[in-house]
Predict the 3D structure of the following.
Amino acid sequence: MKLLKLVPDDTNIKFLKWRIPFFVVSILLIAASWALVATKGLNYGVDFAGGLEVRATFTERSEAPVAQLRDDVEGLGYGSPVVQRFGEDNQVSIRVRLPDEIAADKDAAQAAANAVVDELQGNYPDFRLDGNDNVSGKVSGEFRKDAVFALVAAMLAVALYIWIRFEWQFGVGALFALFHDVSLTLGMFALFQLEFSLQIIAAILAIIGYSLNDTIVVYDRIRENLKKYRKMPVPELLDLSVNETLARTVMTSLTLLVALLPLLLVGPASLFGLTAAITLGLFVGTYSSVYMASPLLIWMGVNSDSFVPEETIADKQERIARGEV
Amino acid sequence: MLDFPTWRKAFLWGIAVFGMLLSLPSLFSLANLDWPDQLPDPVVNLGLDLAGGSHILLEAERDEVAAMRLEDLEESVRNAMRRAEPRIRIGDVSTADGQLSFLLDDVADVDRARAEIEDIMNGTGPVREWDLQVVDGQRFVLTQTAAGLDNAVDAAMEGALRTVGIRIDGLGTREPTILRQGDTRIVVQVPGLQDPEQLKELLGKTAKLEFKLVERQASAEEVARGFVAGGEVYPYAEGEGFPNGVVVQRIGGIDGETLTGAQQNFDAQTNEPVVSITFNPDGGRRFARMTTQYTGRQFAIILDDEVISAPVMRDPIQNGQSQISGGFTVESANNLAIQLRSGALPVDLSVVEERTVGPDLGADSIKSGMIAIVIGTLLVMGLMILTYGRFGIFATMALVINVLMLLGIMAALNMTLTLPGIAGFVLTIGAAVDANVLINERIREERKRGRRVIAAVENGYKEASRAIYDANITNFIAGVLLFSFGSGPIKGFAVVLVVGLFTSVFTALPLTRMWVAGWLRKTRPSDINL
């Protein structure tokens, strides 16, 4: 049987030739992402903004009365809700961000939640309540704090591990690549105003995990080649390492993609945001391993001495000092 | 490479088979099949987002506990001063700013008053609960200490936890989880609950019940002020009787602590739902005395500081039983009965987070999630076999074992599978495949460099392992941090990720290596199709 070869043997793509323009573009993208987050803001779901979300199916019709639902809930006087199709056409999610004075009062917030459900159940006989989230302002604030803390702690800890296992430059490179991935994901969510919830944090963490795998595979090869080809210029060596691991990168990305696609297409609607974010991260993470994590090594002065034991470097410097080299 | 001792083979197969066996009960239950009762059945827990049910986070306010303590102290101090011989007169009592302060009418009483207060405080345990200051020789200021308040909050929460437990048991739902979280919170999770409203209703009430003698109708102003000389003012919950509320006698009366039972019932005459209650012997005696002494007068039945009814006592009640009416429905009467049986909550709890998933949606999610996992796995397997041939077959066998072991271990360790956990499953499939991709690509490379088959395979495993271990350890570190600091969906995701790292490394490295070694030893190929 002739086996499938996704990447031809002995590729020699000069990835790093374009490192400076790509890096500049990436930095601009990171800056643009944060600018978007600052100006447009993230479209926080109830997890992070507080308020309530009601998910429902209209069992007797093929399409949910979205506009009418919006009016119904608006009529209750808690402001304008966000009503969105959710999965099938007759399924909706109704999000209400309560006014501050109601959100601050736990009992009033509870009463509001009950009022919304009662109103809809009263108005539509075929209203089936599928789910109902109701998060007070205090708890949502804690969720935000915890999520940021978990993200930052996870990123710093893995960077530290990579520093210990490789060299400090690799730790910094990996950290920066992760920062790139997280920034771009946030930017994308701000740009398209997609609902940002705790699940999306889980997605970002998955992206971090995947991007790290990629970065480590490339770094491992760089370390190996640094020891093997002591005389090769670093940019060339990085290109070689990326090319050597290219087949693996393509194959792994593809398998993960075919695993994720069914989840996107036939999986539960409530997982769509999560899987979409992971799929997006697949591309961003792969890119960052090549164009962020690797060129940084050049600029931070990684060279063939990096993985040589300290004494040897000292000896060499001594010999240089004595004029022997 | 080829040398694989029998004990090692047995060991690896043992782990794999054991792990897979553990997953069987879960697979049976996910497919809704019967699992023989005689066999052990560790089933993976389904999170509420998959099984349907309610998650409620209740919170008490520290400030409220502080205020209640202050109120109790005020009462003890007043009583002590009243009972002192001769009586110690005090005035200008205030409980503002978390302090109790009062003024002695007579400066000469300072030492006696101090002794009385020391007496009250000696009974409170090893921690110093209050700080006493005497200002200007005659104003006493009692401030609660942080440690004292901590103790009080802790005790109140432990009591609340017990009460919540009893109330939820009263609902008769299956396998609820009730846990204390942090200092002032309680998490309640009830799988499969259809009606979260009832649950909230049940937990949101303190259910402090009191019977007091009615003095007269209160005016609207008195209710608003909440204070009249010689009595206490309570608003009337609803219904006819006292539109403005009532003034009741401050002392005397009976409280809900003396109840031994409460049942939803129907009134013999009107057939409306009522709650019948039974007093303990002490409460029964006091109730009999009170109803004998005040036959013909009205009693206010006060629940959570609102009068729910004020019946006239026509006959003395000697049998220690009574009933409460007050415009109940069967459900609300039943709720009240449960609340009374559980006793009052020592502190008010309010709902700060509520999540409910309908059982239909949960079932749909499992079904479509499982379909997606199966399709995804099949596609990945196809791709692996097309790309790596025989080595791809080994990898796909490892993949199946990995998925089953992951499910089995989660079941055995009593972990919970959530919706984000399903995404974690998919990612684990990706990670497991990645390890085999790394190995196989490496073997290809080694072959290209001209190494002989066995050396190439051996080197492939050796060189790829380094990156695989590094990648998995970093992910493990991230996963553990997520699990420790994350909440809700993040935790659900992290659980699968962390367990999946172990199973995927186990299946992708030693297991496939064993199969590859066995095949190489048997066939000794001079070339491999890779």
About this structure: The CA atoms of residues 3 and 380 of chain B lie 31 Å apart. The two ends of chain B are 18 Å apart (CA to CA). The first strand of chain B starts at residue 45 and ends at 46.
